[in-house]
Amino acid sequence: MNARIYGRFSSKPQEHGDSKRRQIDGANKYAAHNGYVIMGTPYFDAGVSGKAGANLRKELGRLLAEAQDGETILFESMERLGRQHPFELTHMIYQAVERGITFNAYDEGKIIDKDNIKDLGDMFAVFTGAATGYVENQRKMAKLLAVNETSFKQAAAGVPSANFKKYLPLAFVWDEKKKAIVHDEAKAAIVRRIFDEYNAGTGRTTICKRLNQDKVPTLYAKNKSKAWLETSLKKILRNEAYAGVANVKGYRITCFPAIVSRDVFDKAQLLLKRNRSRHGRTGDKSRINNIFGNLAFCETCNGKVAVNKTAAHKKRNKPSYSFKCRNHKIGKCKCHSMRNVSPIEVLALGTFFGGAGETILAKDGRKLQEKRDALEHRLATVEKHMANLLGLVAEGDKDAKRLRDERRAERDAIQQELSTLAGEITEKSHAPEMLSELRDLLNLNPVKAVAAVKNHFVNIRAKLENNDTRRKLCVMMPSLIQGLVINLPENEFHIIRKDGTKTDKIKVFDTIDAIRKKGFSF
Predict the structure, then answer these.
(1) Which residues have CB under 8 Å from 235's CB, separation 6+?
(2) Which residues in 250-270 are b (16+ Cβ under 10 Å) and which e?
(3) pLDDT 10s digits, 275-317
(4) Of 324, 358, 468, 483, which cross-links 496 as Cys (Cβ 3.0–4.6 Å)?
């Protein structure tokens, strides 16, 4: 008699146990004592749930497709075939038996074949066994759901439990003695370094390069030799748990000890959004060509203005950089003019940021707060809907699961928007210090005497030769202005403040000529 062995367990931790060996050895011993010839290698579904028949799409499904008429499937007990609804399980068994396949649950002494499939006693035993397994699984799932629900509610109220430790993000561990979530200090230091470098204007690629060069191990416990990648770095920067709040199963868990401050986290979310469309290298040695990044616009078409680099000429010692409309290259703007970057940068920084602080900083923050209040109300509504669907999802309701997934996606989008908005509110509160830092960086002292005009602008130009300074400015600009609008044909520009108001236009030629007429070269 030919036979094939099947086994299954549903929990991933069971991979470290004895379940697989026990099932396969038991089947082999049974086959040896009863004259079965084992065909091929055992079919085994490790870590596959049987409650919804997932194993039918894996090894059990492959076994049923390959089993031949007259062969026997050996397995430990009926529950190994699955714990789905008894009508579904018995239908699958009936179809296979009709093909000439015999089922043998050797540990329970149950054999189902063509000879007894229509026997009332055997039918009753198979169906009740399947029903018992199904009900038992439902009971376990309900109990597990209740335990998880309780632990989530407790954690949301600030009381963690050991049941919650399987949801801990990287850099957190469960302290059994303290009964609390604590930092893995070595990993927490790496997380802080990543946030600090990113918020200082260093790109994700450069951060990964530095971490790999310094041989900093990744946060993964099993594979510390794995290289740092941008994708894993972005996951860390996006994970709110590092700021003390974890989003698990629809709950906002607040019992995490923050690794970085809320301000640091919110600033990172804002930069992630802003840098989404950023292109070009900004590493340690690469020059930051456009300190205005995505803030420079063409007045003709309202498209983005990029910086065009021209190779060094024989008579020049270094390359030149010019503002150019991006849309002109693809025929969407008639503006073909290019303007030297340096005078525009120097004049924009020297005239605008050297002025009075109250004319620069946005004053009204009520709109941001009103927007946040509206988003928080939407978030509470969505989370309430998700909580109402939990029971139906546990019972296997497919429509409820689909709705739950839709609400989850909506919740994630709202939370991301809230993080970005929190970053905007944070940067507004820190705008005065940032303006002061920028002025110190460029030594922007108010020009009182005519004799100081030359030194003022020439000093700014010298400061802008430093790439570290340019990198810092690149990070600061989006927090202090809304845009720099350049009229390339006329070589003039104006700045849009954060509150949406505009400065007077500055004509580059006229301003430089005025300085030159005073007897200074620029």
Answers:
(1) none
(2) bbbbebbebbbeebbbbbbbb
(3) 765 544 445 567 888 889 889 999 999 999 999 888 766 566 7
(4) 483
- Bridging pattern class, strands 102-105 and 72-75: parallel
Instruction: Compute the distance between CA of residue 26 and CA of residue 3 in angstroms, rounded to an integer.
Output: 14
Radius of gyration of the chain (CA): 34
Contacts for 214-217: CB closer than 8 Å, 24+ residues apart:
216/190
**Residue 40 CB: number of other CB atoms within 10 A?**
10
Band of the pLDDT at 363, cuts 50, 70, 90? low
pLDDT digits (tens, 9 = 90+) for 207-249: 999 999 998 988 875 665 678 888 889 889 988 889 988 777 6
Specify the pTM.
Answer: 0.52
What does DSSP assign to residue 505? P
The average confidence (pLDDT) of the chain is: 81
Q: What are the backbone angles phi and psi of residue 182, rounded to the nearest 5°?
A: -130, 170
User: Do the Cβ atoms of 428 and 363 come closer than 8 Å?
Assistant: no
Q: What is the 8-class DSSP label of residue 44?
A: E
Helix (H, G, I), strand (E, B) or coil at 9: strand
> Phi/psi at 428 (nearest 5 deg)?
-65, -40
Q: CB of 162 within 8 A of CB of 230?
A: no
Please report where in the chains the tokens 């709110």 appear, as a residue.
240
Instruction: Please identify which residue in the block is written with the tokens 């015999």.
Output: 102
